[in-house]
Amino acid sequence: MVIAGIVGGRLYHVITDYDLYFGEGRDPVSALYVWKGGLGIWGAVTLGGLGAYLMCRHYGLRAGPFGDALAPGLFLAQAIGRFGNYFNQELYGKPTDLPWALRIDDAHRLQGYPPGTTFHPTFLYEALWNAAGAAFLVWLGRFLARRDGAVGGRLMWAYLMVYTSGRVWIELLRVDEAHHVLGLRLNVWTSILVFLLGLVGYIMTSRRHLSDAISEGTEEGDGPRAESEAADRPNEMAETSVSAGPEPQEAHTKSEMKPDAGD
User: Fold this and answer.
1) pLDDT tens for residues 94-141?
2) 104, 119 Cβ separation under 8 angstroms
């Protein structure tokens, strides 16, 4: 899974920044130098996820629960990985004079910004967002397990939504060179599409889990239908007791009348 993630991350980077490797005067072989250049998270998650799925198929594991267990740790891994941008002095944001602003060396400062300019530490924003996302997924997993009895593979879809919602506003702060589509950075559009994918997946998985829970509850005399019937039973018993109430009184009246008739 890790190897597939590295290959996928590199492929996404090479495809989206092809001019760095296949433009005029470029060396295409350098695209294979993983230690030089970048890795794209979208390709890493895609091929890494495929590797995880094939691994689950091979060992007979259920992909949904495996994804639930993996998602919080994946967030933490990304939070740690973002500090690589700090050491490389790359992928920082717009100029700012906030107390936590980032100072960049002259060799790594983008052209057009004078010496002494400080920038938004977007790597830090994303690291904190990812760490908070990991904590949220742990809470969400426990909440779903308590409420529905199982998480049901929903945490990986939630991971996609949480990560991409943060990536959109962080991406809008960055000033590094990037491809633009309709005025927005390519990664912004990718984040929007992946968010929608995660939303659809979460809804479909939740509906499937609810449908399975209802069918199992019906078979075992449990679940919403059984609970609804059980909730109606006290009313039925009350109606029975009300309707049965006059009978003893009527019988008692008749028994009192018999002696009079006999006399």
Assistant:
1) 999 999 999 999 888 988 898 889 999 999 999 999 999 999 999 999
2) yes
pLDDT (tens digit per residue) in 149-163: 888 889 999 999 999
Residue 14's contacts (CB-CB under 8 Å, 6 or more residues apart) are: 21, 31, 37
Phi-psi region of 183 (alpha: psi -120 to 50; beta: other; left: phi over 0): left
* Cα dist from 241 to 143, 234, 250, 252, whole Å: 41, 10, 15, 17
